[in-house]
Amino acid sequence: MKDMIARWEAYLRLDRLTSVSDLFKARTIYVTAVAFFVTQMFNAVQMYFVYGGWILDHTLLVISVVLLSGSALTLRYQANFDFFSVLWGSMILLAVGGTAIPANVGINSALIPVLVAGIMIVALLGTRRSLLIYCACAALLVVSLHINASQADIAVLSDPAYVALRNTQRSMQAIIAIAMVGAVMGSLTLSLNDLFGSLESNLADARAAEAAKTQFLADMSHELRTPLNGVLGMNQLLLRTDLDETQHNYAKIIEDCGAGMISVIDDVLDLSRLEAERITLTSTPFNPAKMLDSLMSLHQANARAKGINLHLNIEPGLPAMFRGDHGRLRQVIGNLLSNAVKFTDTGYVAMAMRGQDLKDGRWWLNFFVQDSGIGITPERQSRVFDRFEQAQDGQTNTVRGSGLGLSICRELTDLFGGEISVTSEPGKGSQFCVAIPLMAVETDMQTTAPAQNSVVFEDEIETPLAPTIEEPPVALAG
């Protein structure tokens, strides 16, 4: 249902409406048009069987459906809601008058809800002035119908006095209904206008505050990074001097902490750029197999220090070269691999690449990062890609990470037009999958894949040489 509504709104080009009030009115128009079309088609069928064929009411019904539905389609070109309130209000008044006048017996009580529906539509789409004009015209219509009925020859009816009394009663009921519903809808639309105005004002303030926050983050990140680079540079010079073991350890701690701060600052910078929509992808040829091998080599030292085995598995037969943003893809996969090493204390971290040929030069490449680490609880999996969502060790209750890396991975993957997902079980590890479409580059080379489930480095740690990596849930081509 939501998809159908979204497609219909896209067809009507409602995305160009920036005002919440205008969007509400536009949706009121097309929902009313669809409801009117459906109900009148049902009405036409039942009238056909009741009267045994086509009658004048069918013709009037078709005209009204065409006018109302056709006018709703003009939303694609302009959003003049006063035009809709006048047109639809006039159509309702003409329909009620045209139905009741020929009978010369006053207003039909069954038509009172139609007048009331007109009040609601005009109130929601138009101004308070148009609502007052419609209510006045509706009351005048009721009075004219009553006068027309009183001048008709009703002597032929079985009880003329009762008919006259009934007409007066219905006319009074109609006027009371018009006045009451008009007052209620006038008050409601006044409240709605105030609510929409307040909402749009608050939304504008929130966007301005968000932009100011983003700019502040970017400025502060740059300001922090400059002196921090100076501190780290001087610390590296200090490490090259003659230091005793204790002093060297202290300097090394400074270097590690500074590297962590630089990583956090880089994440904040990327986050601010993503929020400001300043990150764009550049397309250059690159070899994803070499990229993965480089990332594995980069994390060898940290993995070896923790006693973790690294595994790399690349599906053979894939093209050697693809065209895409090598730097941003490396950032996504590198972040996942870094997290896997960080959150795995024993066992292994495995990375794999699979692919599916889309037969038009494009491939869906699936990159897997699997670990035997702390895992993620089911409730956290649903929000693990949210900003500032931090991983937590269920055994030690220790919070790890800044909570920005995976959010940046998701947003960068979205820029690629791909998908990122996670499956995990607490205490048994996690598996992240990044699926993105990339264009293959024609070359005589083929992917030089390492042996299946090959170990990048070996040691005496007893871990499985072939960790299970499930087949990718390949995303559908767009």
TrEMBL record:
- Show the stretches that span the lipid bilayer: 23-42, 48-69, 81-101, 107-125, 172-192
Q: What SUPFAM superfamilies does the entry give?
A: ATPase domain of HSP90 chaperone/DNA topoisomerase II/histidine kinase, Homodimeric domain of signal transducing histidine kinase
Q: Which Pfam families match?
A: HATPase_c, HisKA
Q: Which CDD domains match?
A: HATPase_EvgS-ArcB-TorS-like (cd16922), HisKA (cd00082)
What does the record give as the reaction this protein catalyses? ATP + protein L-histidine = ADP + protein N-phospho-L-histidine
Q: Which domain of life is it from?
A: Bacteria
Q: What PROSITE patterns does this protein's entry cite? A: HIS_KIN (PS50109)
Q: Where is the signal peptide?
A: none
- The EC number of this protein is 2.7.13.3
Q: State the UniProt keywords alphabetically.
A: Kinase, Membrane, Phosphoprotein, Transferase, Transmembrane, Transmembrane helix
List each copy of the Histidine kinase domain by range: 219-440
Q: Sorted alphabetically, which Gene3D superfamilies does this protein's record hold? A: 1.10.287.130, Histidine kinase-like ATPase, C-terminal domain (3.30.565.10)
Record protein name field: histidine kinase
What is the species of this protein? Algimonas ampicilliniresistens
